[in-house]
Amino acid sequence: MAKDLLDQNAYDYSDITFQEGATKRAVARVKYRQGKCLVIEFSKYLFPCLHEEHAIDTIRHEVAHILVGSGNGHNNIWKNKFLELGGSGRATSSSTEFDEKRLKEVMKKNWKWTYYCTSCDFEVGRARRLNKGSRGSCPRCCPGRFNDKYLLKVKQNY
What we know:
The structure is a single chain. By secondary structure, the protein is of the alpha+beta class. The chain has four helices and six strands, in the order αβββαααβββ. The strands form two sheets. A three-stranded mixed beta sheet has the order 1-3-2, with helices on one face.
């Protein structure tokens, strides 16, 4: 699909490598060298856990980055291109975009730490434990703000 979108926009992708990556923090990313896109990488952990419509949106998101160039990040130029490609226009993923059952299986197997909410079923995996003194609260129970009542607990997976 990414190659089809690049073809439709007359973009020569012959020098771009499409690959599966080991990133656990991003669903996908574009890597540049000297302003030229060299790699489009999809997380072997996170990308397969996306619901299909969000996987398609992620591909459009990354293609928009390639088409507008490395200096645009998630600015309005990028957003307009993303919308033009049929994307949502959103710069980041949310937990609702993932198949929770698959994501939890992947987290337990590949992330050393799982942070979870005791008020709801929210879980998030992390490769590293938060520093002592760092605390987080559940983004579902109190979105956009910290609240001691919804403090995330931690458990070690392996």
